[in-house]
Design brief:
Dienelactn_hydro; single chain; 8-stranded mixed sheet; 237 residues; Rossmann fold; 8 strands; alpha/beta
Length: 237
């Protein structure tokens, strides 16, 4: 079952989130884990909604909040045209990272209180969302976090010392948005932290797990998705 819910921002106003819940009888009587899904630069589009629906089918309560609401609510575009890419990059350029984290914390608090959530809560993000998933591991009480090809992680390596719960990162070795030098810097800085697990996907480009995308690689996506679900089962219960 899927629906839209309202989320109150910490500084006033509200925004929406796409909520997918397990079918009746799928979870336990006390509720199960929740997962906060963090959007790419294309908004809460079909790709994000499908991810939420897929998680709900596996027994998780999944919530994907609209993080572009401060610029333009309801962004729902694809990666199929230049015009949409231009719009996506404009939104990315205007995105306030710190306010985005606060909006995710507000969303996390709402998710924890939903009737169907009786256990721990994790987060998974893609692209911009991968960066935010890393920062949520650094700045929030999320129980487990997964980032797919997060951008600009090299700008936040000093925050890794704040991580208190498990974090998994899926990294594409040919990521056009993360130069080789930055990849090496990230790998070197994070290898000392036992709560962080990194996987390199050799030969893959950015967004290798985005179904329908130019660089989609089913084998790599399936592997990353399986590792993600095993990770959540282990750390969320």
């Amino acid at each position: 079952m899927a629906r839209s819910i309202d989320i109150k921002a910490h500084d006033g106003g509200s925004f929406t989130g796409y909520l997918a819940e397990p079918a009746a009888g799928k979870g336990s009587a006390k509720g199960g884990p929740g997962i906060l899904v963090i959007q790419e630069i294309f908004g809460v589009n079909k790709v994000m909604r499908d991810i939420c629906d897929g998680l709900a089918a596996q027994g998780y309560v999944a919530l994907c909040p609209d993080l572009f609401w401060r610029q333009q609510p309801g962004i729902d575009i694809t990666d199929q045209t230049k015009e949409e890419w231009d719009q996506a990059f404009k939104l990315f350029g205007g995105f306030n990272l710190d306010l985005g984290i606060e909006d995710l914390k507000s969303s996390l608090a709402v998710l924890r209180k939903l009737p169907g959530v009786g256990g721990k809560v994790g987060t998974v993000g893609y692209c911009l969302g991968g960066r935010l998933a890393y920062l949520m591991a650094c700045r929030s009480d999320v129980d487990a976090a997964v980032g797919f090809y997060g951008v600009m992680l090299q700008d936040h390596l000093d925050e890794a010392k704040n991580i208190r719960h498990p974090l998994m990162l899926h990294c594409a070795t040919e990521d056009k948005f993360t130069p080789k030098e930055a990849q090496a810097k990230i790998a070197e800085a994070l290898k000392a932290w036992p709560l962080i697990t990194r996987y390199d996907y050799v030969g893959n480009d950015h967004a290798f797990a985005r179904v329908g995308g130019e660089h989609y690689d089913k084998a790599a996506a399936d592997l990353a998705n399986q590792r993600t679900m095993d990770f959540f089962r282990k750390h969320l219960g």
